[in-house]
C-alpha cells in the first residue's frame, strides 16, 4: 500500500511539474528580443501588400526593423511604404517588384537574385507568398492546381536557397549554431 501511495504521489507530482513548466514556457516566460538579436538587419517579407504579409511587415516595422518588401504591384508597395514611413518613422524600407507566378526557371528568378544581392544584411525571411482558392479540390481545374503548386511550393524553396548563404553567414558572425546536414 505504501508503494502505491509513493507511486501515485510521484505520478501526480511529476505531471503537475510538467504542466507547470509548459504553462510557464507558453504564457509567462518573456519572449526573445529579436530586435537585439537582428539589430540593423533587414526583414524580407514576400507578398507584403495585404493579408498576413502586410501584418508581418507591420509588426516588424513597429519594433523598428528595416524592411525589404516583395510583391508584384509597384503602386501597392509604394502605398505600404508611405503608410509605414508615416506610422513608424525612421526605418529603411526597400521595395522589390516581382511576380512569383511568372518565372519558373533560373533565368526567371535572376532579377530577384540581383535585387537581393544588393542588400547586405537580410536577417529574417518571412516566406509568405502563396495562392489560395477557396473551393473543393475536386472542382478545381488543372490550370488552377498547377498555379497553386507553382506559387505555393517553388518560390519558398527558391527564396530560401537565394538567402541561405546570407542567413548562415549572419549566424556565424553572431556565434550562433546552425543545424548542418550529416
Automatic annotation (TrEMBL):
Gene Ontology molecular function: oxidoreductase activity
InterPro entries: NAD(P)-bd_dom_sf, SDR_fam, VLCFA-Steroid_DH
Pfam family, one: adh_short
Ranges that cross the membrane: 42-62
Alphabetical UniProt keywords: Membrane, Oxidoreductase, Transmembrane, Transmembrane helix
Highest taxon, organism lineage: Eukaryota
Homology family: Belongs to the short-chain dehydrogenases/reductases (SDR) family.
Name of the featured protein: Uncharacterized protein
